[in-house]
Amino acid sequence: MPFVVEEVNIEKDWDELFKCQWAAWTNPPQPFWELMCPVSGEGPAAEAEAIKAGADHLLQLSKYDPNDRWVKVTDIDTGKIIAGALWKICSTNPFRAPPEKFDAFWWPEGSEFRELLNAMFGQMQDYRQKMMNVAHAYLAILFTHPDHRNRGAGSLLTEWGTRKADESGLEAYVESSVMGKPVYEKCGFVVVMGHPGMKFENPNPSDKWKRLVKGLKAQPPTLMWRPSGGKYEAGKTVIPWEGKPRE
User: Which residues are within 8 A (CB) of 43 and not within 5 positions of it... i.e. 6 or more apart?
Assistant: First the structure.
């Protein structure tokens, strides 16, 4: 398998990396991605504009976080990036102070989609502060180009982060999709909580808003946790936020 895993050079790799992510999360279409990177209009020109805007605002969200480590998988034969991940390696508790409030600034002020995304991130931050309030590694994003799925790239990116976590004595977290769960389990993650049901309110929702919310609720992620070293034993390993082992 002619793959190499290495950290992303933001200046050199960012555009190619983001286009890989775009391909991954639009095939099949993801409601979350439609909110994060909306396309205004139709046709190649509209998509190209959305890709550029999406790359810019994701970079703005991530570039100045010192915990962020973007990682890529490159196919040596072609020289192309085929997969990527964002690991947040937090050597101290990132929730010592309340996090900055998320704002989907790329949507117009008052937009129902801006309010939807802000509500979703707000609720996610609430439970993260309760359960991830220690030094830890967090796999925030992982994607593989649709032409290269089932070749092991996702496992390589997951293992990159778990090695970093083990080297620093950190536990690790990931919010997993149904598709990703087997990959994470092989790397030592265990399911610790089904995703808490999110509540979204809109007194006069559009059909698009209803469709996106239905899609979001149909694909709830599962919170998975990995102790430092990856050795979990039911009935023995202490779950940090519970203070005791689970049977």
Answer: none
